[in-house]
Input
Amino acid sequence: MGDNVPEPGVYPISKAREIADGLELDLVEISAVADPPVCKILDYQKYLYQQKKKAKEMKSNSAKIVIKEIRFGPNTDEHDFQFKLKHAREFLEEGSKVKATIFFRGRSIMFAQQGEKQLLRFAVELEDSGRAENMPVLEGKRMTMMIAPLKKK
Output
């Protein structure tokens, strides 16, 4: 029935209102579909405050997804590729997602297949730390691929 109520039970609406008025609290309907409807006597403002507080706490406890971007070109040298691979592995181990982007300048868009191979190789090299969420996608002059960290056991 609610806070400070002498006896929980089934009451007619008029009696429930009298009890609520006597305690200077509100009669709040919890479930209208139940038979009989479930009501509770409580301080409604306090109830709303607690609901907001609980929602805020749930939001702060939820995992925030951080996306780190690694960019390179279709003709990136092996050393640079390994360097970016090392950084991507660190990002994945700290729990961030990695967005690998190959950007094409000028006529380098002609090497789209080479860029796709490079992104696929990047994903294969990172299989121990993360998994590719999608295949490489060409958007204008960029080709992107998202890599998510593996779940920790």
In short: The chain has four helices and seven strands. The longest helix spans residues 44-61. The two ends are 44 Å apart (CA to CA). Helices lie at 13-22, 44-61, 78-93, 112-125.
